[in-house]
Specification:
Elements lengths: L3 E3 L2 E7 L3 E4 H5 L4 H4 L10 E4 L2 E7 L2 E5 L9 H6 L9 H7 L9 E3 L5 H4 L3 E3 L5 E3 L5 E5 H8 L15 H5 L3 E4 L2 E5 L2 E5 L8 E7 L2 E5 L22 H18 L2 E3 L8 E8 L2 E6 L3
Parallel strand pairs: 6-7, 7-10, 10-11, 15-16
Antiparallel strand pairs: 1-2, 2-5, 3-4, 5-6, 8-9, 12-13, 13-14, 14-15, 16-17, 17-18
């Protein structure tokens, strides 16, 4: 994908390939008759999911937001989630953008579910997980790390300690609470609902603004405030987070990155009428 100039920043969407999740789970209580107007399901009721990560150039800094699925899972796991065969994976997507993994200076994670942090680490020749981005500082929510270490029965299958513990042991992690400035103009801000400590990531230079929405608005089809995922642990908090962010995004014309939209990773939120929002795709 072509680069986007945003003030002093240059943004690129980099992918780790597609996978699939159940469409009903992705849209919660929204009837299939409605959501299938936006997303096609396969015979097993699964829809395509993107792994749209964000690469941000800022002077000497190269910031990566989220790290996709990774390659540490076994064939059975990849079959369950229908990893896209032959897809370009995140390290090669970064190389296609003109960089090497060693060029990344900062990695910021929206949260630690398997599909958002899989390339935090890779397996070395001895089978040990080591940093995929050896020269980067990794920014993780303190509350999310605490929960990931003791997850509940509902989300235990989404967490794998090899995605963060080796980095903490290596001293490469910066923990933050409700928000942090990763580099000047790039911030992680808590937006709870999907889980207690998920973050969105903002990029701001004057009047130029972009936001990586993570699982707050995972696809463009999820722009309506009431269109929530069944995966959200705290759906009423998801509603409040969307009520807080969407009017601002629409009024100020923010560029939006939709992490899981397999076809339309970029767009803008628009207000169709008071309290009703939609997404409009943009192309490069």
């Amino acid at each position: 994908m072509s680069a986007i100039d945003l003030g002093r920043f240059r943004l690129r969407v980099v992918s780790d390939g597609r996978f699939k999740l159940d469409g009903g789970a992705m849209f919660g209580v929204v009837p299939k008759k409605l959501w299938q107007q936006h997303k096609s399901a396969d015979p097993e009721n699964r829809i395509d999911m993107g792994t749209n990560c964000l690469l941000i150039e800022s002077g000497r800094d190269l910031v990566l937001v989220d790290t996709g699925l990774g390659d540490k899972q076994d064939a059975r796991y990849e079959e369950i989630f229908a990893y896209e065969p032959g897809a370009q994976r995140l390290p090669d997507s970064i190389r296609a953008a003109g960089f090497e993994p060693g060029d990344v200076t900062h990695v910021v994670l929206s949260h630690l579910h398997f599909d958002h942090c899989g390339w935090n680490t890779r397996l070395d020749a001895a089978g040990n997980p080591v940093a995929t981005f050896p020269n980067a500082r990794y920014f993780l929510s303190r509350g999310e790390v605490e929960h990931a270490r003791q997850p509940n029965e509902r989300d235990r299958s989404s967490y794998f300690r090899w995605n963060w513990e080796p980095l903490i042991e290596a001293g490469q992690v910066e923990l933050f609470d409700d928000s942090c400035e990763v580099v000047p103009g790039v911030r992680a801000e808590k937006a709870p609902g999907h889980n207690a400590d998920m973050c969105v990531v903002t990029v701001v230079d004057g009047e130029e603004r972009a936001i990586f929405l993570a699982d707050l608005v995972p696809t463009q089809a999820h722009a309506p405030i009431g269109w929530l995922m069944g995966y959200d642990l705290y759906p009423l908090q998801s509603l409040e987070s969307k009520r807080s962010w969407l009017p601002r995004l629409a009024e100020e014309g923010w560029l939006c990155v939709f992490e899981h939209d397999a076809d339309l990773p970029l767009g803008r939120i628009v207000s169709e009428k008071p309290g009703r929002f939609a997404a409009r795709p943009i192309s490069l």
